[in-house]
Design brief:
183 residues; mainly alpha
Length: 183
Amino acid sequence: MRQLLDRLYAVSGAIAALFIVAICAIVLLQVGFNLVDRIAQLVTGRAIGLVVPSYAEFAGFFLAAASFFALADTLSSGNHIRVNLVIQRVPERQRPLIEAWSCLLGALVSGYFTFWAGNLVWESFEFGDLSPGIIAVPLWLPQLSMALGLLCLTICFIDLFVQVCRGEQPSYRTHEETLAGEE
């Protein structure tokens, strides 16, 4: 089970990375088109009018997808921004209780958002909502990436909660200790 969950988080992070690459590609393509247009205008006196249709809208969709898919991977690997000030000042034997409470609260909050994001995806699909750009994209497609990323995050919080309740070292702590040993 541990390998399956770790693979889920890694795949989620890889999908996030692919969306970042897609943002770079679409923006670079539009910049290249702008450059060609500028050169054509200087040479012929008239721009060609090259454009990637709805490139800003797609970049926004890709950014949202990358952000949400990255959540579980960054949490499980200890790269999330967490406030450890409280946990560091608590006696060692009380830390698991605070960590368990934090993970349970995180699971409940992210589960709540996952439910409503899934509801939003379903409503957009049911009503046939489309984006307003040059290329009309069914809105449930970019919304689905948000819901799936939140689902992975909820699974990760539940996983961390179970690890702490079993008395195991949470995976984010294991990664932090590994990184500290490399310094």
